[in-house]
Amino acid sequence: MRLAGKTLEENGYDVVDYHAFIREHNSGISYANHADDPKQALNDTLDEITGEKIVMNIDGADLAEMARSQGDLSQALYQTVNGGISIDEPTVTKEEWTGEAPAFGTIIHYTPQDPDDYFTIGTSETMPPYTMEDAHNQVNDIRQILENTGLETKEGHIG
Predict the structure, then answer these.
(1) Is 34:86 a contact under the CB 8 Å cutoff?
(2) Cα 23 from Cα 84, distance rounded (Å)
(3) For residues 11-33, b (16+ Cβ closer than 10 Å) or e, as one string?
(4) Torsions phi, psi of 24, nearest 5?
(5) Which residues pair with 154 in a beta bridge?
(6) What is the phi/psi pair of residue 75, to 5°?
(7) Which of 79, 26, 25, 17 has its CA nearest to residue 44?
(8) pTM across the whole model
(9) pLDDT tens-digit map of 93-150
(10) In angstroms, rounded to a whole number, what is the distance separating the alpha carbons of residues 103 and 14?
């Protein structure tokens, strides 16, 4: 994540912060923290779960493959800890709103899946005057930047 953030900054994006979160079976994302450094976000999240009971949702096929091939079962645990990068983006306002909203709600989500870790890049909601074409261009630009650094990416939802 640190490499992705550095690469984005070198290419004109302002990284606001990094996040780390635990995917918990019962409620989805249960524990999440933000920090200026990805390691700090992870450590804060891990500190938060100390003493908690975590129910994990592990894909049965993945678990069976790990067990049959005598692979590292810690991979199942590794995959429940995810991360993300927040970037600064233009904001828009409307008369009926009390505040501002990000132009795209860009989502840069990190999924650890050793050895095939990847980033999913998408947007939550494109706000006028920006268009869906603008949102696609933003996502494609970020994907290209990360892929040029050797990082794997996938296109996420573009809204």
Answers:
(1) yes
(2) 13
(3) eebebebbbbbbbbeeeeebbbb
(4) -110, 140
(5) 120
(6) -55, -40
(7) 17
(8) 0.84
(9) 877 777 888 999 999 999 887 678 899 999 999 999 999 999 999 999 999 999 999 9
(10) 15
